[in-house]
Amino acid sequence: MTRIAMVGAGLSAVSACDALRGGGYDGEIVLLSDEAGPPYDRPPLSKDVLTGSAATRGDIALRPADWYEKQRVELRPGIAVTALRPDEGVLELADGSELTADRIVLATGGTARTLPVPGADDPAVHTLRTWAEAERLRARLVPGARIAVIGAGLIGAETAAVATALGCAVTLIDPVPVPLTAVVGPDIAGALHARHRAEGIDVITGGVERIDRAPGTEEVTVTVGGRPEPVAADTVVVGIGIRPATALAEAAGLTVDNGIVVDVAQRTSHPRVYAVGDVARRSGDPVRHEHWDAARSSGQAAAAGLLGAAPPARSASWFWSDRYGSRLEGVGSMADAEETVVRGDVASGAFTVFGLRASVLIAAAAIDRPKDIKAAQRLIARAVPVRADRLTDPATELRALLRG
Amino acid sequence: MTSTETTSTAHTSVLVAAVGDIAEGEALQVPAERTGHHDTISVFHDDGTYYALDDTCSHGQASLADGWIENGEVECPLHSARFCLRSGEPQCMPATLAARTHRVEVVAGEIWLHPGQEPTS
Ligand SMILES: Cc1cc2nc3c(=O)[nH]c(=O)nc-3n(C[C@H](O)[C@H](O)[C@H](O)COP(=O)(O)OP(=O)(O)OC[C@H]3O[C@@H](n4cnc5c(N)ncnc54)[C@H](O)[C@@H]3O)c2cc1C
Ligand code: FES
Question: pLDDT truncated to tens, each residue of chain B (121 aa)?
Fold first, then answer.
């Protein structure tokens, strides 16, 4: 194996490069990206980039500028891959050239979903997936600006929180009364959602039906089902998830079903082609894990697979989200829990919910209790039998439970 | 806990705790005022051995003393970069830079930190 080409240069691809070199791979690595400039980290886009505390691309670089040369990773930004011919190992590029590689890693991520309603293509309507989109949105978040955020999941909630802190007048619209309930359970989801109102956000439950602009005005109106008065806004932000970028894989005939389907080593249905990050779904998993940690670990798993090593132990899906100076974290699948118990004081705002099934921990979610989550990750991974009353007892050190 | 500070030729040695004060899997922060070092230094207790690293994660603003300490590593509370407690080297993304290490010595049941000195072995 002398050349590996990665399509897309987000966290999953860079993590694969890092792990390939760490694992002793000495051949060529070509890292192709349709975005301009060196790879950057996405979580800050809805946090420090919007607040302005990360002002340049360098502030959110995934790796230092000299890393690529030092690691002999040939970075080719600003060029899209337009087709894949897996049997030949050929990538067709937007400039008409071709690149041949022994192995290809698809790390194409996804694009922000757009709202399927009239007026969703108005220039006042923003999505947030890339640096370019974040820069465009940041310029709109000025004091007094009326910002309508559609979708109160992770990115919508973070954007609403930042916009409020910057002095914008924010309306947050979601059809679900308490978003994220399935992911983190009702206690945490309820506390999180209540916080928006407490911070002065106008929270509306309902589905958006259309977006209109009176001719010649700067203002748009967002019509929400069941509400007579539309919401007037200067800027609309849509945060309703992503669409995985599977087009290359589909056209090449790879198995695609809610993402590019991969095995434990991130291999697709074609032996030459791997897929990692947001675009990939492990066969057997009901969902794609569109989170930072999954992108990092799938890159590591692909590197192991490419090197013929055993795949690293798989950990339960973990994500975080920051809003109003608080940190939300979730691990595992709360929806599959038979019993949930709380550790800490719900009224204080900092507490953890543990989800158990058949006497082992399978999920946890927490606000501002990072150590509980670290312990939970290990309790889940090691499948140590635990008693609910010990998880809730503040006198019990969670670390002690790990010893069984 | 009493704090004793003595100045040796090149460095200040700081008495940080007695053995038993820092529980297994916990860390103690030693503020910059006590060490003359530019960052807080944290002394980590992993499985009977003490290690010292600069407290601020090389990736961001997190305090490594709040991290998870196990198997000779500390995992950052914010984005879970792992650092080797002995060498300070990052073990995975997102960190790139090593954490600065410092020498820790246990003498007669007391844990001494030697800021700026390389750990022995
Ligand atoms: C605003 C925002 C905030 C987030 N916050 C958090 C958080 O707090 N916590 C958390 O756990 N996760 C968070 N995430 C999720 C996390 O960032 C993603 O899961 C992660 O970035 C996925 O990495 P990836 O490598 O799969 O894809 P991406 O980072 O999307 O990278 C894919 C790259 O491939 C490029 N590409 C696509 N098609 C082609 C082609 N044909 N040719 C060339 N290049 C192509 C794309 O342009 C893109 O640059 C956040 C995401 C966003 C957008
Ligand atoms: S701050 Fe430590 S990993 Fe990001």
Answer: 344 444 443 457 999 999 999 999 999 999 999 999 999 999 999 999 999 999 999 998 899 999 999 999 999 999 999 999 999 999 999 999 999 999 999 999 999 999 999 998 6
The structural domains of chain B, ordered by start, are 5-114 (2.102.10.10)
Report the CATH number that the domain containing residue A298 is assigned in CATH.
3.50.50.60
Distance, in Å, from the CA atom of B95 to the CA atom of B85, rounded to the nearest integer, reads 14
Residues of A in contact with B93 (CB under 8 A): 11, 14-15, 18, 62, 296
> What is the spatial distance between Cα A252 and Cα A268, in angstroms, rounded to a whole number?
11
Biggest alpha carbon–alpha carbon distance for chain A: 68
Range of the domain at A249: 3-44+61-111+243-307
Interface ipTM: 0.91
Tokens in use for A205? Answer: 């439950």
Separation between Cα atoms, residue B20 and residue A212, nearest integer Å: 67
CA–CA dist B75, A389 (Å, integer)? 27
Q: Which atom of ligand 2 is nearest to the CA of B95?
A: 3
Best probe residue, ligand 1, of A14, A15, A40, A42 (max atoms within 8 Å of C-beta): A42
